[in-house]
Structures are given as structure tokens and as C-alpha cells.
Amino acid sequence: MNRSEKQELVESLHKTLSDATLVVVTKQSGLTVAEVTDLRRQMRAAGATYKVTKNRLARLALKDTPCQELNSLFTGPTAVACSKDPVAAAKIAVKFADSNEKLTILGGSLGDRKLDVAAIKALAELPSIDALRAKLIGLLQAPATKVAGVLQAPAGQLARVFGAYGAKGEAA
Questions:
Q1: With CB atoms counted within 10 Å of each terminal CB, which end of the chain scores lower, N or C?
Q2: CB pairs under 8 A, 24+ apart, for 145-153?
Q3: At 35, which helix (H) or strand (E)?
Q4: Counting beta carbons within 10 angstroms of the beta carbon of residue 145, is it exposed (0 to 12), middle (13 to 18) or buried (19 or more)?
């Protein structure tokens, strides 16, 4: 890799890290190409990216980004998972790490806050943005349906009373 290719890689990684809401740094030792491909596929499906990095180039790319405090995590065979969704990359990385001991989560950042492994795992347990939006819409719609039901109940009772009087009058 020549100097200009390295510069392009650093700029590309810098842009990715700057735009990401969540960055998860992982250690991958012994993962096969098929396993890494599977992990990348899962990340892409969730709207995240997964990139194996050269530590020296990653440290250069971290400068002037919200996650620049992650410098110390880049030792050994590392990779970075990034997503704009605050939980997507964490969910996939934790799920994959639980099923494959070759992937270890080292830490990450959410915006400009550095996160440890426990915080990344806690993030992974949260519902996604889409699930939270669905719950919120459900909560907002629930009162409207209850109000409609309450408003329809007296009319229904009134109709039953009139029906009963009508049936009583016809019987007499």
C-alpha cells in the first residue's frame, strides 16, 4: 500500500468515524473469511459497517473526531463497527461475540462519550430506534382509541334502550 492509498484510507475512515453515532472497537483473532463476511452482512442489514483496520492508520483517523479517546483500544488485530443508529452496531457485535469466542468487544463510543464493554452490552439490550418509534406511536394512538370507545358506548347503550322499548311496545 503506497502513501496516497494510506492517505485515502485514513480520510475515508475519518469520515466514517466522524459521521457515526456509535463506534464499537472489537478484537478479532482467528476469525475466518467466511465468519467476517457473515458479520459484515449482518452489520450491513442493520445499517452499520464493519471494517478491519490497521492500528496506526486508525489512530490517525481518530484525530479530531468525537471518538478520539479510543486511541488506547487499537492494539493487536482490531476492527471497527460503526452505525448512525445508537444501538445497531452494538446489537450485532454483542450477538456475534456471544456466539463466537474469536470476536471480543474492547469498548467504543457513543457520540463523544467513551464506553466500556459493559456499556456496549447494555446498549445492545436496548430496543432499536424503529422499535422505540413503534412503541411511541402505539402509546399515542391508545388514548385516541379509548376516547372513541368511550364516546361510542353511550350511543350504543341508548340504541339498546330504544330497541328494548320498541320491542316492549310491539309485544303489548
A1: C
A2: none
A3: helix 33-45
A4: exposed
Contact by Cβ (8 Å): 80, 92: no
Distances (CA, A) of 49 to 4, 16, 107, 146, 163: 23, 9, 16, 43, 65
Of residues 133 and 151, more confidently modeled: 133
The amino acid that residue 65 corresponds to is T
Joined grid coordinates for residue 149: 370507545
Q: Which residue has the cell 353511550?
A: 154
Q: How far apart are CA 121 and CA 60, in angstroms?
A: 27
Q: Residue 30 has what pLDDT?
A: 86
C-alpha cell at 49: 459497517
In this structure, what C-alpha cell is assigned to residue 148?
372513541
| pLDDT bracket for residue 151 (50, 70, 90) | low
Residue 109 C-alpha from the chain's centroid: 13
